Amino acid sequence: RGLEFHTSSLVLATSLQDRHGEFVSWSNLSVALVDSGLYSEGAECASRALMLVSPEEEKADDKRARVLNNTALALLLRGDIEQAEMCASKAIALSSEPTSHQEAVLRLVRELNMVMVLVANKKFAIARIHSQYMGGLAARFQSPRNNGIARLCEGLTEVYVGDAHRGLSLVEETAAAFKGVMIPLYVDALSVL
Asked: Which of 48, 109, 152, 173 is deepest in the core (most CB within 10 A)?
C-alpha cells in the first residue's frame, strides 16, 4: 500500500506543478521501493528526486543528502558497494553538524548507512571512526532511537575490529529492545545480524 500512496502523491504533486511535493514523493517512493527489495527502481526514483533540487533552493544540501543516502542504501543492497560508498560519502559531506534532535536523527541514519557501506567495503577502521562519532552524537541528543542506532553501529564495527562476541551481543540486544517498538530499527538490527 505504501507504493500506491506514494505514487498517488506523486501524481497529485505533478498535476499541481509542486516541485517540492514531487521531490518528497520521489524520495519517499525511493525508500518504499528499496524496502520492498526493488533496489534498482529505488535508485532510479532517488535520481529523479535529485534532479528536482535546484542549487539556490532552501536546504538544498540537506535534500541532496537525503536522496544520496537513499541511493547509497539501494546500491549497497544491490551489490554496487563502491558506488554506494561514493553516494554515502557525498551524503555525509553535504550534512551539517546537527544542532537539533531532528537533525541528529537524520545524521545518525546517514551515518548508519555509511558504516554498513564501509563494512561491506572492508574499511573497518574508518567504519569504527564513524561509529564513534555516532556514539558522541547520540550522547548529545539522547533518545531511545538515537542510542539504538549508535549501539547498532558500535556492535557492527566491534564484530570486525574488536571483540566479535561483544559486538554480536550489542546488535542482538538492540534487536530485542526494538522488536515491536521501533520496527525500522529492529529491521536494521536484523539485517546486520
From this structure: 152
